[in-house]
Structure formats: structure tokens, C-alpha cells
Amino acid sequence: MSDDAKPVPYRGGGFAPRPVGLVGPIVFALVLGLWEAGSRLGWISPIILPAPSQALGALADLVETGRLWLHVSASLQRLVQGWVFGALLGVLVGFAAGLFSLARAGIVPVVAALFPIPKIALLPLFIIWFGIGEESKVATILFGTFFPTVISVYGGVDNVDRNLIRMGQSFGLGWFSIVRKIVLPGAMPAILSGFRISASIAIILLVAAEMIGAEYGIGAYILLAGNLMATDQLVAGVAMLSILGLTVSWVLGRIEKAVLRWR
């Protein structure tokens, strides 16, 4: 190799992500600015898509009247109940399918058969079973959260390096010690990824369930705004959903960093 030749830097950077400052907020502010400018210049019809300032005014009105907390608190209560119980049940069933052959033989075919069914299609059935109240809405979210969690946990356990398990056995570790020290940490990245997916599904099902027979909730607010053709309130409701999704993603991200510090 000649002296003038230089090594080509590895562009993958070791696949280690690094923070890039305020790029995200700047892009978001730029999009909002272009949207606002297009609305004020008449390029975007307010009937089709209101300006961000109009949606902000609708949010301010919700705050002044006190209805914002009524809608947000109702949605949060349903989301937390449905997602937490669905995720916990999914973790238990997923670990059973991943660790025990008999449980796998019974669980995996059932999950494969029921997972493709659109869960919102079962909401009328849940209403017949549990009534029009909160139980049917929570059951819809729980049912939709359960299956992706089972799949992620089962897949994470199944993909743990078997050489590590054999190594633990060679050192005389018991079954519970292997599960706690090897299987659980090895499956945790897949489990947390499943939590992110199931949380997104839970928010989608939350909105759909609230559009059927709910007095308060973000979904009920969006449905009412759509019926009244109040596009500013409609966009405000979508913004509330976006903020809710960002908050859930941030919380799960903090949990992921705390749990997966060993990576």
C-alpha cells in the first residue's frame, strides 16, 4: 500500500446510535411553519385542513372549559388498564410457550389463529358480553395487546443463544437460575420491542372503542368533532393522540434504557 492511501472509515460507526441534537424539533417546527404559512396564504383551505393556530385555539378552549382533563383522564384510565393487564398476561403466556413444550404445542396454534383477526371487529361481541360501559372497551384493548406481547415474548425466549444456556448448565445452574440470569436478560430486548408495538396497537384500539358509546375520551371527542365538521377540533384531537403516543414512547424508552444498560 502506498503512503498516500488512506483507510476508508467504517460508515456504520459500529452501529452505535448517537444523539443528533435538535434535528427532530427543528424539522417538526419547520413542518408546522410551512403548514401555518400555507393556510394563511390561502394555499390550504381551512375547511379541508385548518391552520395549526386554529387547532391550538381549540386546545386552549378545552383547557379553559376543563374538558381537556375529562377526555384525557378517561382515555388514560382505559389505556393503562387494558394495556397493563394485556401485557402482563401476554408475558406470562409467552414465557410459558417459550419454556414448556406442552404449553407451546397448545398456545402457538391458538395465537396464530386469533392474532390476524381485527380486534375492533370483536368490539360488538365484547359489548354483548360486558355491556356498553368501561369493561367492553378495556377488554378490547386487553385482547389487542395480549397477542403481540405473546408473540414477542415467545420469539425472544426462543432466540436466546442456546450456547449460553448450555454453559449455565455446565456450571451447575438450576432451572430457575438459568431462566432468571440467562433467558430473561436475553429475551428482554424482544419483550420491550413487543411492548412498544402493543402500546401503539392499544392506542389505536382505544380510539376505535371510544367512538362507540363513550361520553368522554379522545376518541369520543374526535368523533363528535367529525360529526360537527369542526376540523379545528378534529385536528386538536389528533394532536392529543400524537402527544399521548409520544409520551408513551418516551416512557417506554426510559424503561428500555434502564433495563438494558448492560448493552
Structure description:
By secondary structure, the chain is mostly helical. The protein has one domain: MetI-like (MetI-like fold, Orthogonal Bundle). Helices cover 75% and strands 0% of the residues. It is built from 10 helices and no strands. The protein has helices spanning 23-40, 52-65, 67-99, 101-114, 123-130, 134-158, 162-170, 175-210, 218-227, 231-259. α3 runs antiparallel to α8 (175-210) and α6 (134-158) packs antiparallel against α8 (175-210). It is flat, with a radius of gyration of 24 Å. The two termini are 37 Å apart. The relative contact order is 0.11. The mean pLDDT is 86.
Taken in chain order, the helices and strands follow as HHHHHHHHHH
**CATH superfamily label:** MetI-like
As residue ranges, the low-confidence spans are none
Count the domains.
1
Please work out how many helical segments DSSP would assign: 10
Rg of Cα set: 24 Å
As a percent range, the share of helical residues equals over 70%
Looking at the structure, the CATH topology is: MetI-like fold
CATH class, named Mainly Alpha
User: Strand-residue fraction?
Assistant: under 5%
Helix-and-strand structural type = mainly alpha
Main sheet makeup: none
Can you tell me the overall shape?
flat
CATH architecture: Orthogonal Bundle
Mean pLDDT: 86
Terminal-residue CA separation: 37 Å
The counted number of beta strands is 0
